[in-house]
Write a structure and sequence with these properties.
Pfam families: IDEAL. It comes from Staphylococcus xylosus. This is IDEAL domain-containing protein. The structure is a single chain. The chain is mainly alpha-helical. It contains 2 helices and no strands. It has one domain. Helix 1 packs antiparallel against helix 2. It starts with a helix and ends with a helix.
Length: 72
């Protein structure tokens, strides 16, 4: 009987470990997106200052895609 309980504990422990790993991965992904969004804001500002329409469109499109990912 104890052996079966131990097996269930290992399975639960594995499950909890997987959930923790996923949570950490989500935090890292969100942090990377936030850093990229900050960089894009700076690049968009520079494109506006330099009146570079192509860069402005490219960076705003990437920024919108990041926002959609967060909402969707």
């Amino acid at each position: 009987m104890k052996h079966n309980t131990h097996v269930k504990y290992n399975t639960l422990e594995s499950f909890v470990s997987t959930i923790n790993d996923l949570g950490i991965e989500l935090i890292i992904d969100e942090s990377l997106r936030n850093v990229r969004k900050q960089e894009l804001e700076r690049l968009i500002d520079n494109a506006l200052k330099n009146k570079n329409e192509n860069d402005f469109k490219r960076y705003t499109e990437e920024y919108r895609n990041l926002e959609e990912f967060l909402v969707g």
